[in-house]
Design a protein that fits this description.
This protein is α/β, with parallel strands linked by helices. It contains nine helices and twelve strands. Helices cover 29% and strands 20% of the residues. The strands form two sheets. It has an eight-stranded mixed beta sheet with strand order 6-7-8-3-9-10-12-11, with helices on both faces. A four-stranded antiparallel beta sheet has the order 2-1-4-5, covered by helices on one side. It is globular and about 70 Å long.
Length: 328
């Protein structure tokens, strides 16, 4: 089965008058399969949210292609892209900021239907809204309330309801639980998993929370300074990380046992500025394993085993050379 979403050679640079350009995405190639959750992890500023917006075409790529079910989104005229937006939705990090405080919850959830299914009657709109609110665990009377009268978890449920009401195939979840309390976060994650099973949804889950990513994902893509440095199944990446940045990222996790102090792979040196254009590996200036080959030219992801791909010239070496190993 062909991938639902396929990115090939995607680049994005932000240019500001009188300032150096910011290289946000560099030669990104990635696939997403129908029904899976692909987690996109990395530090703040690595380009995760920019990539999510490129897939939704809320931002235009400078070059490269983004295909949805084989269709190049960049080639679509506005009319066709408007139709396709009903099948590509998003849930954002700060629920309150993404909801219009002047509108009722019912109006907010119904808004995508007014755009994409303008022929619906008021009765049909109301029925769809109430059904959707029930699906996300909100009572019918929530439809008449304003977002400010709801808790943070309830606000995020409204955002999820707005995303699923058009019956999309894919949702970009951009840090959907990072602003919520731990207990509320768990309920939202359970809701997202339940909706995925019921509706056959595909998720791009953008996060920097390693523990959450391990819990919710099918596959993982690791980003650093606008590049994908490692991809694979959850078990491939978490049990056998091969890129030094991935190992450093995973080894920084806090242990659930306060008596345990797992070894860490520490990266030295300063993170390169996003205005820097890299000829070789983007981690070369901080990596303890750097060689001349790392800076000689582009280091592209290459296959190891299964779905595991790593953009590192030393990825084939035994894991102990990438020590200290991640404690599990």
């Amino acid at each position: 089965m062909p991938p639902l979403v396929e990115l090939a050679g995607v680049n994005k640079t932000f240019r500001r008058p009188g300032q150096a350009p910011i290289h946000a995405l560099n030669d990104i190639s990635l696939t997403m399969n129908e029904g899976e959750t692909l987690a996109l992890i990395g530090e703040s500023g690595s380009g995760k949210s920019t990539l999510g917006r490129i897939i939704l075409r809320l931002l235009e790529a400078d070059s490269g292609t983004v295909r949805f079910e084989g269709t190049d989104l960049s080639a679509l005229p506005d009319r066709e892209m408007r139709y396709l937006r009903s099948r590509l939705q998003a849930v954002f990090q700060e629920p309150y900021e993404s909801l219009d405080p002047r509108l009722s919850v019912g109006s907010i959830v119904a808004e995508p239907l007014r755009v994409h299914e303008p022929g619906l009657s008021q009765a049909e709109l109301r029925e769809r809204v109430l059904t959707c609110l029930e699906q996300v665990g909100l009572p019918p009377d929530a439809a008449g309330r304003k977002p400010g009268a709801l808790s943070g978890g309830q606000q995020q449920r409204v955002g999820i309801a707005r995303a699923i009401i058009t019956r999309p195939q894919m949702i970009v979840l951009d840090e959907p639980t990072s602003s919520l309390d731990l207990s509320v976060r768990a309920h939202i994650l359970e809701l997202l998993a339940e909706l995925q099973r019921e509706l056959g949804l595909t998720y791009l889950f953008i996060s920097h929370d390693i523990h959450t990513v391990e819990y919710v994902s099918s596959r993982i893509a690791v980003m650093y300074l606008g590049r994908i440095v490692e991809t694979g199944t959850v078990r491939e990446v978490f049990d056998d990380p091969r890129h030094p940045y991935t190992r450093a990222l995973l080894s920084a996790r806090l242990s659930t046992d306060p008596r345990e102090s797992p070894p860490q792979l520490r990266l030295t040196g300063d993170i390169a500025a996003p205005t820097t254009s890299h000829h070789g590996c983007v981690l070369a200036g901080r990596c303890p394993l750097v060689t001349a080959e790392c800076t000689a030219g582009p280091v592209r992801p290459r296959a190891l085993t299964g779905d595991h791909e790593v953009a590192c010239v030393r990825a084939d070496e035994t894991p102990d050379l990438l020590a200290p190993a991640v404690s599990r």
